[in-house]
Amino acid sequence: MFWKEDIGVDLGTATVLVYLKSAGIVLNEPTVVAIDTRKGEMIAVGDEARQMLGRTPGNIVAVRPLRKGVIADYNVTEYILRYFVRKAIRQRFLIRPRVMVCIPSGATSIEQRAAKQAIIQAGAGQAYLIEEPVAAALGAGIRIDEARGNMVVDVGGGTTDVAVLSLGGIVCTKSIRVAGNDFDEAIIRHVRKVYNLMIGECTAEELKIGIGTAYLEAKDAGASMQIRGRDLVTGLPKTVEVTSDEVAVALQEPVSQIVDAVKEVLEQTPPELAADIVDRGIVMTGGGALLHGLDMLISEKTGLAVHVAEDAISCVAKGTGKALDMLHVLQRQNGRP
Fold this sequence. Notes:
- By secondary structure, this protein is of the alpha+beta class.
- It contains 11 helices and 18 strands.
- Helix 2 crosses helix 3.
């Protein structure tokens, strides 16, 4: 049996989510590929490849083909898109589907063409692009086609997109290449500086999720975690205990850049839309929005109510799927017939 399916893809720096119109979110896996450098073959993708990060022999490298929200390795990106789309639809036989993929709001025309071409090469019949804040708003259930202002802050793995939306389009926006991965890198740098201990991405992410906070006043100051890594002085394995206070200090720089981006967009917002945002508040989406206290910090710095969307991680993927039902509104806003 053959039928046509609409597919939405959140092609993120850290994670790929695939949304099928008929089934919802059907795939959520890391954007990681393991490559055998001797043979030039890709031997693992997604969860299996992520487990190899920092644990591979010399001839195998585990890499992320996207950097800061854009395609860094076109061939590998095309491969994982084909792999994930086929895995999502499994044994279903489809006419070449319509596929909607999200991109950062600050993506260049070259980056946009690369993303679209990768989707076509991966097997799409028609490929469409949607900016992340628009997809995030749709996935969070916001009516962006109304003549009312809505503000979305999407904190992903590689980029943070801040935008004010009205009448189906972006009124003002800022995209910064600071997000969840930068939180991990900041923790790695702090642990290396303070304890002379080298830890990997997975350990840093565990610290961030376990005791990380952007707003220390709302976190138990006594919270701590034991972590293991390699002592840079002796070269031997070592265990240290890190507190939530230390993680908060480590996260100050990337978090402050996100807060500054939010304030900058608010300063550019037309008065009528600013009044709507005062009434409605700010909606946060993306995995980075789940960092403890980030919503409270933004609320304190802006004086506005801040809400983290339900199922924030899946909002962009859901929005890409919903966008295919709103092509007439989105294309009109973008000036396309």
